[in-house]
Amino acid sequence: MPSLRASTCQSNADFEGGFAIAPEAVGVNVASAATTGVSGISIEDSTGDTTDPLFEFALSVERVRAARHALDSSNRPVVLTARSEGFIVGRPQLDQTIRRLVAYAEAGADCLYAPGIRTSSDIVSVVRAVAPKPVNVLVGTDFTTVAELAGLGVRRISVGGGLARAAWTAFLNAAIEIAERGTFSELARAVPFAELNQRLATTEQPR
Fold first, then answer.
1. Is 8 in contact with 155 (CB distance < 8 Å)?
2. CA atoms 102, 44, 125, 88: torsion sign
3. Alpha carbon distance 80, 30 (integer Å)
4. 48 in Cβ contact with 22 (< 8 Å)
5. Residue 136 contacts residue 81 (beta carbons within 8 Å)
6. Same domain (yes/no): 82, 173
7. What is the pLDDT of residues 91-124, one digit of tens each?
8. Domain check: are 18 and 43 in the same one?
C-alpha cells in the first residue's frame, strides 16, 4: 500500500493559472517562480469566467507543457502539479477531467490534481488513469480519512483553506460566546502558548 508522509522545510506555490493565458507567458512566470527556491508549483486550467470556466483543451495542455519546459530549463528540482478544475467550476464531468489529467501527465506534469472529486470510485478512476504518476486529493470536510485515501492509491493530500476555516470557526465561537453570553469557556479550551510554541517550533537545518 502506498504511504502518505509529511514533508518538512518545503513550500508548494499555488500558482493559479500561471498569472497568464498564453503558454509562453506561463513559462516565463513559472521560470521566475522557480528562482525563489519553491519546491512545487501548480498550474490550473480554470479561466475565472463563469460562462466558459475552463481553458480550451489544447491550450490547457500547452500551458502545462510550457511550465514543464520552464522548470526543466531552470535545472531546479521543482514538482509540477497540473490541476483540472472542472469539479469546482461547474463542469463535474469525470471523463473530461480524466482526459485532461492524462494529457497533462503526458505533457510533463509530475502530479495530477482534480479538486472536488470526493467519491471513492471517482478517485480510483483518476488514480488508475494517470498511473504511475501520483494524484493529489483535496479534503475540506470529513468525507474520508488519510488511511482510506492511501488505500485508494492517493499519494498527496491538500486541505486548502480547511485549517484556516477551522481556526476561524474557533475564533467565531469564542467571540460569539463573549458577545452573547458574557462567558469565556471557549477561551479556556484554547491550547496554551507553551504547547503552541513546542508544536510550531522549527529547528534550523545545517547549511
1. no
2. negative
3. 10
4. no
5. yes
6. no
7. 999 999 999 999 999 999 999 999 999 999 999 9
8. yes
